[in-house]
Amino acid sequence: MKISASKIIKSWLTKLKPNKSKNYLNKYTISIVAVFIFVILILFYFLRPIYFDYTNNKKILENKVNKTFELKTNFNENISYKVFPTPRILVENANINFINTDKKKIKIKKLYILISPLNLSNFEKIKFKKILIKDENIELHPENFKKYFKYLTIRKNKTFVIKKSDFYFIDAQGNKVIFKELNFNEKFTKKIHQIDSSFNFAENKVNINFSNNIGSQKNLKISIPSLKQSLDIKFDKNSNLNFALGELKLRLLETLILLNFEGKQEFKIYNSFLRNKFINSKIKGKISFKNNFYFNLDLGINRIDLRKLLLTYPIFKGEGISKKINGKLNIKNKSTNSFFGNINDSTMSLIFENGDIKIKDLSAQIMGNSQIKSNISFLQNNKKPIIKFSINFFTKDPVKFFRKFGIYKFDKSLASFNINGNIDVKSKKINFREVIKNNNEKINSKEILIIERAFNNFVLDEGIIGIFDFFKIKKFIKEIY
To answer: What pLDDT shows up at residue 419?
Structure first.
């Protein structure tokens, strides 16, 4: 006997109890089902880009990156899609080229392109938000530093972020210079271009902040909190890559340097000064970055304590002066005090040359009636530092001058000395090649040996800084007279 389908359904419904139907179809159950369906749809939407053909669309992706970020890229290996923590495209082994003509590219093992969660329905509609580089170890190329900086100053619609990545470059001496845990972030609004960055260099954290107020002043701040050092540059609103005008304030080793500048690769310095507990000086002149760093500055010194300065920052300490510091300081000092008495109208040229320091054409009036002229060279000499010197001293009143050193019997109305020689800094020994008194009296070799022995014992016994110690000089002079 055949039973119709309608009868079967009717029989089944009669077996169901009304209260059970209510339990299965309450608001809670319907909400769970709705949420489940919504989650499935969202997952389907966000997972859809997994199935896009990135390999065959690699060139399209590269061109899109170039257009969006103004950044030339090459994608060499796998391209895939990641949904967590935010939608992004992962490119393995990518090359970044900040300027299209660069031959040396920056290599990135994993490059993330963060994309907008909107318009994920097809490949063509994907919109890029930013490029992310994280946990990388990247080599930079020194010859391209200007191009890197130029790229960072470009106002772009989109930008990139760097998190906890190490950057390094090989300098001209073959040394590896490393910037650890670099973090970099850019922000753009209609009126402000903001850069915030930090990294560790030589175990010290460095913070960098750049703020470009469009149509107004630009500010660059660099600080090393652990060393209490900072650099603050205020650029005039008309400053750009072709011409810079502004004020630089540097706090370094308890020293404040303020420079007003203008120029491009060669900068004019004016209305500037240098101040610390040892020196107070006005500054003007030129600083050049044209080929290599070089400066030619005039220093009008108002106050200086040379002995304390050298005691705090010895010239021959560690590796000495960096070979990268090259330039010339033309120094004028109207008046200062010393153990000789007042030193007036002193002038000299202080030259920095590949790690060596040279004092040329030093001239000064001492106690009003004495004069000294000198040329001195502080030479590193392959880490065996020596000082070469020539000194011409003349006094119209030797009795008054030598009285300061405890010598009261001096029967001449005039006295002069012409001396040249060198000092071996490490062995703490002086060598007088020639000593001439009163223009024509040449000191013989036996007397020179006595003078050298006395100088080594009384002046250089604790090092080169002894030449600025009045009591050591006094003992030496009393010994030889």
So the answer is: 95
